[in-house]
Design goal:
Elements: H1 2-8, H2 14-26, H3 29-35, E1 43-45, H4 52-57, H5 59-70, E2 76-84, E3 88-98, H6 101-108, H7 111-127, H8 132-137, H9 139-143, H10 149-161, H11 179-184, H12 186-196, H13 212-215, E4 224-229, E5 243-247, H14 248-253, H15 260-263, E6 266-270, H16 273-278, E7 285-289, E8 308-312, H17 317-329, E9 334-335, H18 340-345, E10 351-352, H19 370-380, E11 388-389, H20 397-405
Parallel strand pairs: 6-7, 6-8, 8-9
Antiparallel strand pairs: 1-3, 2-3, 4-5, 4-7, 10-11
Helix pairs in contact: 2-6, 7-10
Amino acid sequence: MGKKTSQASRWGDKQSLLIQVQKLWDKGCLLQETLASSELFPKRLIFKTPSSQALVEEFDLVRDWLAQIKQLTGFRVEYKTIQHRVMGQHNLPCEVWLDDLDTAIKLLGEQKNQARFIRQYRQTQAQLPELEPWLYQHAIKALSYADVWPQLLDFILWRQQHPDSAIYLRQVSLPGIDTKFIEQHKGILTTLLDLVLPETQVNTALSSSKRFAERYGFQSKPEMIRFRLLDQHSSILPGINGDITLTAADFNALQHQPGFFQQLQHIFITENEINFLTFPAYPNALVVFGAGYGFSAFDQVNWLAQMQIFYWGDIDVDGFAILNQLRHKLPQVHSLMMDEGTLLAHQTFWGTDEKARHKSQPQLLDRLTDREQSLYQALLDQRYQETLRLEQERIQFDYVNQVLQRLAVPESPL
């Protein structure tokens, strides 16, 4: 029985025909045909038939195959009469056709989805006709959102009607829509909003996945900057000492304090919270808690370009990548205690970077000095030890004080 099935599967059968119909559905052709009749039907399907040799050598299989084809429903089978030199005259199927859309939909059992798509399209016609071309071109994708399509249209319409609302997404009051709904559907909303809104109302420079709200003119959670003033005599923020957190906008507004640029000349950035909290006193300076990749808050602080800035990160592959990223925003940044001397002075505190084991491709860092690039390459090449990492909090506090006491203005990093 197994051999019979294997042999017969070389020829067209119901399964191979249904696979072709399913492909028409998956490509959206059947739903497109639902909206606008084209030349899709009648459609001739691929249909393999037995060879002349098979008629002789596999006659029983051919007979069984013919019986199956005669039982096909939903397809139009055309026959032709052949005169075989051995078997004589026979009527054999030669072509199979799919005649119309309704038959194709019934064969797949997609009547309900077809009806859902028609309702979805008619609602779009009535409310946002500018989305009709997208719905037609991306029929299957659109259908996957049929259950939430009314809410998606409601949100897009609301945004169209309130171009200058400048409110938080949380404040949008629409039935069935909350911030979680918007978060879950950012991808499709981005596609549709970009099609509907004027270019002047879409900030395409902002990523929709990370900064969706701002991209479309909504308020977003303000970016915060956490810092400490290191000069005890500073009057930049009178009466305030210790750990301070301000919005990026308020941090930028510090420049309007009297004597600001005389009292503040140096910025230190450190990635470790304890190092941030224990950073030694330093004249005319403050320390910022960096907290890893991403310095988007600094984009709102225009006076940073006038400061001497030092970045103190881990001595590992990621530490130099973060330094490199920061220099793309602030080219004048100098590294602090991220040198071979510091590394060798703390050999007993070396550790390993487990994440580095899983990184297939090292980053190309274009903003490192020659010395930094040399140490970065040494780490990549495992010259000291495998996946070496010296975490900044392992550097001795006395060593930190000594470095800061003899800190001189270094040469420009670039």
